[in-house]
Amino acid sequence: MFVAAIYFLPATPLYEKILLSEHDELVSMAELRNIDSTLSDQELRNRLLAYEGYDENSNTLKSDDEGNYTVNIKSADNVRTISRSKILFTGNVEITFLIKGSDNERSLYSKSLIVDSENKTITAYGDVRFKDESLDNGLGNMDAEIVTFLWEKGDLIVTGGTSFSQRENSDGETVNFYNYGDTLVYNAGEKGLFFKDGYITSNPQRQYSSIKAKKIAFLEGGDMFLSSATLNIGRVPIFYFPYFFYPGSRLNGNPAFGLNSDRGMFLSLTFDVLGEYPKISEAEGSSFSAILRDKNAKSNRNNGVYYEESLKPNTGLALWAEKSESYVTLLMDAYERTGFDVGTDSLLKLFNKKLTISTNSMLVYSNQKYNDTNRRFFSVNEFKFTSKYFNLTGLVPFYSDPYVLKDYGNRLTSFSIDSIFGLSQSFPATYSSNITTYTTSINGSLSIPVKKIWFLDKLDVTSFNMSSKSTWKSNLQQYKQTNIVYPDINIKASGTIFGFSRTKNKEEKETVENEKEEFKLSEYFILSDPLLYPLYENEIKKKSTTSTTSSLKLTYTAYEQFKRTYEEYLSGNFSGETTVNKLGSTLTLAGVAENLFTVTSTITPSYSYTYYEESNHQKTDIVSFNNNNKITIPKLGITWFINSQLYRYKKINDDNNGVIETTERFGWDKESVKEHYVSLSKSFERGDFTFTPGLKYIMDPLDGIITPSLSIKYKKFTSAFDYKIVEDTDQNKYIGKTMNLSLGFLGTYFTSSFKAIYERDQFDASDPFAPFSFKSSASLRNKDKTYSITEYFDFDADDNGVKNEVEALKTYIVTPNLLFTHNFKTIEEVLKTDYSEVKLYKDNVLKYWWKNRIVFSGNISALFHYDYNNPYNIYSSLTTKLTFSVAEFLDINFSFVTKNNGYYRYKKDGEFFKNMFEDLMRSFDIFGSGVKSTQFIMDSISLELIHYMSDWNLHFKYTASVVSTSSGYSWVPVVTVYLKWKTLPDLKVDQNWRKYEGNWESTESVYGKK
After folding, report:
1. Average pLDDT taken over every residue of the chain
2. From CA 797, how far away is CA 503, in angstroms rounded?
3. What secondary structure does DSSP assign to 716-773, as a single string?
4. Which long-range contacts (CB under 8 A, 24 or more apart) does 468-472 make?
5. For the chain, which terminal residue's Cβ has fewer other Cβ atoms within 10 angstroms, N or C?
6. Is 648 helix (H, G, I), strand (E, B) or coil?
7. Contact 343, 361 (CB under 8 A)
8. What is the CA radius of gyration of the chain?
9. Which residues share a beta bridge with 839?
């Protein structure tokens, strides 16, 4: 933008003579100065100008005095002197302006141009064009009849000028933006562009739509002023504004005003007291904001009236707020129907952001009394302190009633005038729930540095909590405390009593497991078998340098948990006390002897005390000792484990029963020993074979269970077998219980699986086949798995008395756009066809014509489920989305969802498919009575037509769906027609109708601002 004056040196007679002399005179002047006279006329002029001290490479008028502008006359067909102070340039004139210290040139093109050094003006006329790509205020490109530049002030005066710029509207589309005025003044001092008797349009030739005004002003940053303005479609005025202002820059107070159906007329103000409020919406959905916003604007600062770019850095509190990202904001709202409020939303980050304090509070005066008062309030306060060893957070809310936050916490924070143009204006829904309960709490943690204590590695207060829960009591019309926790504290310590280790480097193999993949249907059954899947896990074996350690270490952990809770608050006294106090520790001895064995032994003593006031003041004390022991021998694959309770003492004391004591000491029985087993599992590789035998034995004093197992993998073939043998203590012998056999083949084109189960303990010599069941699958597929056919069989020889029951005999056919399923199963002891199901799906169907300017696209999804035995379980659905588009002319979007749950009606006379086809034909009778008597129900439908025109887009939309009403289900259509102006898409001329319970009614726009 022009901000300073320019200095020109008045043209001297010698300078004029050199510029205006003919060839003979130039030769004479060159010979007098010993310059080569055989050069061209232009070269002679350049040499003579350089000899006399002028710039030989351009026609720049320059002076020894320092000026703020440099003007270069790039080209002109003819130059002549009109007077001593005026020079006339004619024919393809091009000049450039360059501000001192700037790299951005402004260019001026015209047929004729007069430089008047005495009046410090440059006047261009005849097809004048002005260009400055660095400007974003509508002055970037301009066509005019006459342009006068006052270089001392930096002003422009334009007659019959049209400026041109490109902006993005709120839909993200590029819009050509033309401003015209009979007289246009660019004022450098006020940094504004002023039109008289002008208009704004996106098509200056035809002006399908425009804003016309007596005066139009654009200020730096995008502020727009209009007086005596009208919004026109063609020649017809739609809106009239005696005076209109829209801030492209953010105003101090960020006023938002308009009309809302719930709140009536409203005005919301948001003032920055300290720092900058980050919750200010930039109204990106607003057309005015998008058109007027300066895309090159930097971060602005409050100057008292509105926000503008400042070159001076912040100081004092403002600098601290900027660096710490702190702010203090004053909020004020006035609503016609609900009252007014004043509050603050603040965030303070202190002590290098270690302490954060935030508050969102509002005092409200409501138009209508709530709980016998007009005064309502809410305040949500939080703090957080974070340091290396100590953390503390707190939440302290207050509410006058359950609805106040939802009613007044949701507010507009950006300049908004959209409702003036009839748009649906809605508020945010950040707070959408009633506050029937809220909690006040303080939470903390503490890590105590203990590096100097040899047996203590870590000491933490892992959590500390105090809280109070308040609940709204409708009968009292106030909040009452219903739960208090005071306190809830957890302390934990850990350390090493003694330990030693010896380390040596050794080269060994390390196994890395890949993440599980997502499998196709053709391999689902084999990989869902828990016996087979581990054999298919992808393993990458790589060599790495690791360390083998021999060590022995004794470690411990100790903890305490204490929590006291009060459940109710009655008559000023707390009651319902519950106290829980737990103390415990874990003592672990762990030893490793290189690769020979590992030993782990853990003793866990614990003590707990509980008090329940509501249960007759019951007090319970429990003391217990538990022990875990585990030994592993990696090279042999042997693991031994035992989990046992060594001691348990329990004492219960209440008002009714007195003292009851029980003591449980360790014994070699099932009550003391919770788990006890030894297992053996080791893999052996022999060529392409991998053998993994295994044996697990659950030992005394538990009931013995022996489970031998063996798995074999050979390339793509796998097999696994295990046999569970259970001890029968009554007969003092072992009895086979369950045998599992799994087989699998996972190839590129063929997969198969087989899993057989035999319940050996249910063996009956009269029917030895009864305990047998199996599942199997086989799949043929192509290499990329997009096509496959799979057969799945689930068989049980005896299922609760039903012999040879087929649970499922399914056939799956899969293609890229189809899944067909057909199933047989045993029904009433007879194998019958169960159901068939077809799923069709096709996405992103694209077809192009006419140099790709006509496009058809579609998506379809269809489902048909046919139950052969239950006609009420036959159903279908169809979802279709179609789009037909002609570039820059027309879009047609059509979608519908149809369902049919009434197929059972077609079986009435045994002519199922005939009746279904006839009913399908009736569903297409949309103008007659057929559509009202069909089972093919249109669940929803949408048809949208968009006709793209030069300045406006015509939208037509028809939507309808089945809606539940008081009288049942109804078909509710909605029709919307509107014109949308491309320049300001939010401005729509629209009409909306909805047919509800037989009557058409006008509704708010479904396209209103969300």
Report:
1. 79
2. 59
3. TEEEEEEEEEEEETTTTEEEEEEEEEEEEEE-SSEEEEEEEEEEGGG--TT-TTTTEE
4. 468/439, 468/440, 468/441, 469/437, 469/438, 469/439, 470/437, 470/438, 470/439, 470/440, 471/436, 471/437, 472/401, 472/402, 472/435, 472/436, 472/437
5. C
6. strand
7. yes
8. 44
9. 819, 863
Note the pLDDT tens digit of each residue in 706-728: 999 999 999 889 999 999 999 88
Q: How far is it, in rounded angstroms, from Cα 442 to Cα 967? A: 52
**Residues 631-646 pLDDT 10s:** 999 888 899 999 999 9
The span from the CA of 495 to the CA of 557, in Å, is 7
740, 722 in Cβ contact below 8 A?
Answer: yes
Q: Would you report the helix, strand and coil content of the chain in percent, each value rounded to 5?
A: 10, 60, 30
Report the C-alpha gap between 921 and 935 in whole angstroms.
11
Q: Which residues are 648's β-sheet partners? A: 624, 664
The span from the CA of 361 to the CA of 405, in Å, is 10
Helix or strand or coil: residue 916?
helix
**Percentage, residues of the chain above pLDDT 70:** 76
Cis geometry, peptide bond prior to residue 701 (ω within 30 degrees of 0): yes
Closest CA to 716 of 675, 751, 685, 767: 751
Quick one: three-class SS letters along 512-553?
A: EECCCCCCCHHHHHHHCCCCCHHHHCCEEEEEEEEEEEEEEE
Task: Give pairs for 313-322: CB < 8 Å, separation 24+.
Answer: 317/274, 318/274, 318/275, 321/274, 321/275, 321/276, 322/275, 322/276
| pLDDT for the residue numbered 134 | 54
How many degrees, rounded to 5, is the angle at CA 92 between CA 88 and CA 98? 75
Contact between 51 and 32 under an 8 Å Cβ cutoff? The reply is no
Q: Return the amino acid letter for 489.
A: I
pLDDT at 319: 86
3-state per-residue secondary structure call for 304-372: CCEEECCCCCCCHHHHHHHHHCCEEEEEEEEECCCEEEEEEEEEEEECCCCEEEEEEEEEEEEEEEECC
pLDDT at 544: 42
C-alpha span between 551 and 502 (Å, rounded): 6
- Given pLDDT bands bounded at 50, 70 and 90, which one contains residue 246? low
Alpha-carbon span 394 to 767, nearest angstrom: 71
C-alpha distances (whole Å) from 517 to each of 514, 527, 529, 533, 541 are: 9, 11, 15, 12, 19
